[in-house]
């Protein structure tokens, strides 16, 4: 006799943004700002992190998000940020490592790139997300144990896999982050924490303008559209899935 397996996922609620506890770095401009706005509109509890006090206060006032002033590229800022955001939010379900540094601006060949500019790109784009994730890992695993699920999004770039001239510092840091994300995902899946590497594409943002000042902005993606795609990926990751489906969702958005 053919046996029919009951799909218990049909009886589980579809995840929404409402009530999610989310931290977004680089949350005062570009993709980060769009993410904060859409998360708040969806009913999420949001903590945004950025370096400029005036910008943090402005966005916090506009959106009702918790605004924290800090630099993810500075080791000294990491644990105070982690303590503040988990304390204020009462835990953490989603971490979006969005803050980025180009390194040298204008962009330069590697032979002309100062070591300090390479170090800055690595500090903000690679070491910073590692430190912040490590500091928040206990809160994320606690969320998973409570059945809330937990997701870390590391914002990537096609420069992580393609060798673009003059993008060496940025590309090297994003390549490191891409691999770091894959390893984190393998190590954390048994604890219920998923890691996503998402390339949002070329967007009309201050970062892109600093990299390519004469770019035709009409050909660039709106940060709001990219933010919607990122949040859809988060919701998909939070959905009840079979193990093989969960593995596939962890690769969603990786540059190809």
UniProtKB/TrEMBL annotation:
Organism, per UniProt? Eiseniibacteriota bacterium
Q: Which GO terms describe its molecular function?
A: oxidoreductase activity
- What does the UniProt keyword field contain? Oxidoreductase
Where on the tree of life does the source sit, at the highest rank? Bacteria
This chain's protein is named SDR family oxidoreductase
The similarity comment for this entry is: Belongs to the short-chain dehydrogenases/reductases (SDR) family.
Q: Which PANTHER family does the record associate with it?
A: 5-KETO-D-GLUCONATE 5-REDUCTASE (PTHR43669), ALCOHOL DEHYDROGENASE, PUTATIVE (AFU_ORTHOLOGUE AFUA_3G03445)-RELATED (PTHR43669:SF3)
Lipoprotein among keywords: no
Q: Where exactly are the transmembrane stretches of this chain? A: none
